[in-house]
Amino acid sequence: MLRTPAALADAERWTAHNYHPLPVVIADGDGAWVTDVDGRRYLDCLAGYSALNFGHRHPRLIEAAHAQLDRITLTSRAFVHDQFADFCRGLAELCGTDLVLPMNTGAEAVETAIKVARKWGYRVKGVPDGRATIVVAENNFHGRTTTIVSFSTDPDARDDFGPYTPGFVTVPYGDLDALAAAVDDTTVAVLLEPIQGEAGVLVPPAGYLAGVRRLCDERNTLFIADEIQSGLGRTGRTFAVEHEGVVPDMYVLGKALGGGIVPVSAVAARREVLGVLKPGEHGSTFGGNPLACAVGTEVVKLLATGEFQRRSAALGAHLHAGLGALVGQGVVAVRGRGLWAGVDIDPALMTGRQACERLAERGVLAKDTHGSTIRLAPPLVVTEGDLDWALEQLAAVLREAR
Ligand SMILES: Cc1ncc(COP(=O)(O)O)c(C=O)c1O
User: How many whole angstroms separate alpha carbon 18 and alpha carbon 9?
Assistant: First the structure.
């Protein structure tokens, strides 16, 4: 008897319905592949929304975690532990900056960046107390806390969760003139995703990120790059801002930083920025714990060689060529960089959800977003053969619907 139906019913019975998962119950994973409770194998083309850039159970990450589990896992930041400095140094060097503040989830790191920017605004820029504003983009996705959903433009994320945190100004993504009009003497930061993931893998027009950098310099405003999904090799570079030669004032990182094993997030910035925080003003019981740091250090080492970034660039070109060939065959448009793609399916054929269900039946896991778009973000350990096979499955799903 198949175990999947009962496992799905149990999950449905005992959890809040804040997700609408595909009907797949995963039991184990290895590299780019997972196996469900009934022994069916799937190519994971979502990779935990980029939290699994190094694949499931990368041997070096598992080894680092095991070694740390045998020594010490948690101290709190009331004490210093012997994994802490190595992680912070390694990550600061990877970002080419001075200081790192580790947290756990992506949303916590975004909240950290918001607090740091506000304090920087009051203490360094000289914004009058309580007046700081942060400019954000329409269709942003930065997490789920009450402050972050306050500046979401997605009704599902925002409605019914007010009262909302003030101090945010929203502009269209990719529009430099609108941004220039929105930044004023109270603006402490511009907070952007270099590529908008949840919005459908939207790549801004060429020159936008460099223009944001110039504008922030001219107006003495911080540029915060939320690289939680776009960073750490996903787009073929360590950070997506590199495609335009941009260095932000704050990197916000998460997801893949935890190697798919533990939640690890961080903010990385120069001393003049992150140095504004004093003891007692911010923290987290679990942030920067020994297990997180041991895994995070190994993640940084994997990225330091550039191998994953090169794989992502080369395999990404292959993926995008294959997806491009499907335009007009049931695909309306394809966007993205590296091993990251937003694929708009012809809405006359099916919804994104239906496309993902049919792909799952054929052994490919992907996730829909906003109507008819599906997102593909396979682990960077995926092979060219895996990608060709996934493309064949997508072509077959489209063919069957036409
Ligand atoms: C760009 C971006 N920022 C922030 C987050 C929030 O991260 P978390 O779910 O770990 O809180 C996400 C998650 O999808 C994201 O894609």
Answer: 15
Answering whether pTM is above 0.90, one says yes
Cα 325 to ligand 1 centroid, rounded to whole Å: 31
Sheet arrangement for strand 41-44: 26-30, 33-36, 41-44, 364-365
Per-residue pLDDT tens over the stretch 168-204: 999 999 999 999 999 999 999 999 999 999 999 999 9
Contact indicator for 165, 198 with CB cutoff of 8 Å: no
Place of tokens 């495609």: 243
- Alpha helix ranges (H) inside 163-244: 176-182, 208-218
pLDDT (tens digit, 9 = 90+) per residue, 304-319?
A: 999 999 999 999 999 9
Cα separation, 231 vs 240, in Å, equals 6
Q: Which two tokens stand for residue 281?
A: 């003003």
Pocket flag, ligand 1, residue 197 (CB < 6 Å): yes
What is the 7 CA–ligand 1 centroid distance (Å)? 27
What whole-number distance in Å separates Cα of residue 131 and Cα of residue 170? Answer: 16
